[in-house]
Amino acid sequence: MNILEKEITIYDIARKLNISAATVSRGLMNHPSVNVNTKQRIVETADQMGYRSNHLASNLRKKRSNIIGIIVGNLNSSFMSNIISGVDSVLSKANYNLIISQSLDNIDKEVNIAQAMYNNRVDGLLVSLAYDTENAEHFESFVKRGIPLVYFDRTFPHEQCPGVAIDNVKAAYDVTQHLIEQGCKRIVHVTAYRLSAVALDRFNGYKQALLDNNIPFDESLIIYTHLGMQDGEKAAHQILNMPERPDAVFAINDACAVGCLLELKKHGINIPEDIAVAGFNNDREASIVEPNLTTVNYKGYEMGEVAAQILVDRLNNVTDTVTDNKLILKSDLIIRESSLRKK
Amino acid sequence: MNILEKEITIYDIARKLNISAATVSRGLMNHPSVNVNTKQRIVETADQMGYRSNHLASNLRKKRSNIIGIIVGNLNSSFMSNIISGVDSVLSKANYNLIISQSLDNIDKEVNIAQAMYNNRVDGLLVSLAYDTENAEHFESFVKRGIPLVYFDRTFPHEQCPGVAIDNVKAAYDVTQHLIEQGCKRIVHVTAYRLSAVALDRFNGYKQALLDNNIPFDESLIIYTHLGMQDGEKAAHQILNMPERPDAVFAINDACAVGCLLELKKHGINIPEDIAVAGFNNDREASIVEPNLTTVNYKGYEMGEVAAQILVDRLNNVTDTVTDNKLILKSDLIIRESSLRKK
Questions:
Q1: Mean of all residue pLDDT scores within chain A
Q2: How confident is the model over B290-340, as pLDDT tens digits?
Q3: Collapsing DSSP states into helix, strand and coil, what is residue A250?
Q4: Do A43 and A50 touch, CB atoms closer than 8 A?
């Protein structure tokens, strides 16, 4: 095994077959001037010798890599794997290979990955921003170079880069409205330790629903966390220690809602009678936890498909599919037993 | 936005700054012969003009892309995202970027991805085979070319490609032995519709434990499925329809075990008193489902780290870390309430 082994060239193939390098080259490109039998021998010999089609060099010439990059915050959710499956299905049909990188919600890592994808010349890029990302300067090189970039889920407003997302204000409004209709008045909102655009939208939806129902907003009912399952458990302890017990919890993701629900149950709280619980995302655990979790169903697969299709259309210079720069997908409130007090 | 916009070269930068292209080139490579202020101007101008370091061309020369590829069957499990996090942590430290592709457990897609990764010249490759893959010929091009390849989890025996996995025979033996110790005698084994090497190992572990406990193997207790959560639900119906009711279920993954457990509960079966249930993988849902699921903890993060480290060592021509070609990681039986009859 020798990494520095010499790269096989068309000259090596030509020497082996005792024909000209030009013939080898034409044969490999399936040129009509080369005899079928000769072509066959060229291809077989190239294969035996381990010849690589020299994609890199050929990419340099035609400036197409046929690779699409996707950058996501974290692969660790069924929601994100659904998105990637949707993307994969569209790109496979369009003959692109997908390469995936995760920023682990770290802005520095996101900058590095973006640079690597740029240098390795992806033909297009799909991005869901890291949780902490506040600007998108590290993607400007793509814009300048005319490489199509489509944001999804955690989007960034940009004239040349379409975004695909759901209406987070409305979805959070619907969850809160549902809890109020179930008779809840002291609704804890479990949100992110630092408000991203998505978290802020959901926060605003929550507040607006309270306002519309004449329930005063109470800052002491807001819990800021890192949104993991264990953070949900910690949130449960904060809730149990509140001087006046809340009657509902609305966490902005399912992992956190599930952790909170299980910990409240452990402490003898009846769900939903004592405290109703709702999450967001419709991750797999939402229908495993007991009682099953009320949540917002976010069509991950569809979001992936739509974002990938916009990208492919841009690569083919078809742009009429997007009339608006921001595409809002439908999301649905899924009411399950964790919040259903009125049956 | 014009995809065909001309690529910026060092000549463009040189013209703009009215210096020689050679100086620009040396400046960009941080050569000591170039004055610090000039370097600064060169770098700034290159940046403004959207110059790309021409990684591709430079990769062609030095034959290093600094990219490692990883091919997995499916990203859709917390186990797999743990593996990828482990890989990511080692590669980041070694200054490699990781690109991920999923075969969706489809051998044809795996062949395509392997080809794309080869043509795009990853420096090394990590592979967990698609469920259906029976030979590894499509990876021979890497071996021939001296590109290090390390298998993990679903490995393939190959003299030049190390594999990192757990002892699936032993782990399945331990699960079955535990169920027998809890008083179970009619243990259903839910396995894959077609036996991969991993599934076969677990099947053998199950059979060996029965044998060692003088329990005759009964083919009518074996259920062959596609191992999804819904397949687990279907398995539950098969179990409920068996003429003599089994007293335990051992499914070879958690998703399937959880689906089966929930469906059995819906039909009034007490878990673990009537039927004990055990899974495999220690996915997140195993500690969400009630009762919590007995399973095998597979250290995904560690497996990712170890596989990546072997790869990095090979890239650096350090090979003494692997004494054997197959590295067996420890796995642990996690006993939870779903199987605990004797308390």
A1: 88
A2: 999 999 998 899 999 999 999 999 998 776 545 568 889 999 999 999 999
A3: strand
A4: no
pTM: 0.75
Q: Out of B63, B74, B113, whose CB is closest to A97?
A: B113
Q: Which pLDDT score, from 0 to 100, does residue A76 have? A: 78
What share of chain B in percent tops pLDDT 70?
92
Q: Who among B1, B85, B144 is closest to A160 (CB)? A: B1
Domain borders along chain A are: 10-53, 65-165+299-329, 168-298
Provide CATH code, domain B168-298. 3.40.50.2300
Chain B partners within 8 Å of A80 (Cβ): 75
Q: Name residue B188's beta-bridge partners.
A: B249
Residue B57 has pLDDT above 70, yes or no: no
B319 contacts chain A (CB < 8 A): no
Find the mean pLDDT for residues A212-230. 96
Flag whether pLDDT at A4 surpasses 70. Answer: no
- CATH number for B65-165+299-329 (one of 3.40.50.1000, 3.40.50.2000, 3.40.50.2300, 3.40.50.620): it is 3.40.50.2300
Strands A97-102 and A149-152: unpaired
Fold annotation for B10-53: 434 Repressor (Amino-terminal Domain) (1.10.260)
Q: At what angle are helices A55-62 and B55-62 packed, to 10 degrees?
A: 160
Query: Would you call B283 an interface residue with chain A, using a CB distance cutoff of 8 Å?
Result: no
pLDDT digits (tens, 9 = 90+) for B97-113: 888 988 888 888 899 88
CA–CA min distance A207, chain B (Å):
30
The helix-helix angle for A36-49 and A10-17 (nearest 10°) equals 120
pLDDT at residue A55, rounded to an integer: 43
Q: Is the pLDDT of residue A36 over 90?
A: no
Check CB contact of A116 with chain B, cutoff 8 Å.
yes
Residue A279: its chain B contacts at CB < 8 A? none
Higher pLDDT, A300 or A238: A238
- Fill in the amino acid letter for A171: A
- Please report, for residues A45, A52, A238, the alpha-carbon distance to residue A34 in angstroms, rounded to integers and kept in the order given: 15, 20, 77
What interhelical angle do B300-315 and B78-93 show, nearest 10? 30
Tell me the pLDDT tens digit for each residue of B85-98: 899 889 988 888 88
Provide mean pLDDT across the span B42-65. 65
Q: How confident is the model at residue A1 (pLDDT cuts 50, 70, 90)?
A: very low
Give strand pairing partners of A124. Answer: A68
- The answer, for A141 touching chain B at a CB cutoff of 8 Å, is yes
What is the Cα–Cα distance from A286 to A7, expressed in whole angstroms?
53
Instruction: Tell me which H or E stretch contains B248.
Output: strand B248-251
What is chain A's Cα-based Rg?
A: 26
CB distance A3–B146 less than 8 Å?
A: yes
Residues 258-277 of A with CB under 8 A from B: 258, 262
Residue with tokens 């990590």: B126
What was the ipTM of the complex prediction?
A: 0.71
Domains A10-53 and A65-165+299-329 share a fold: no
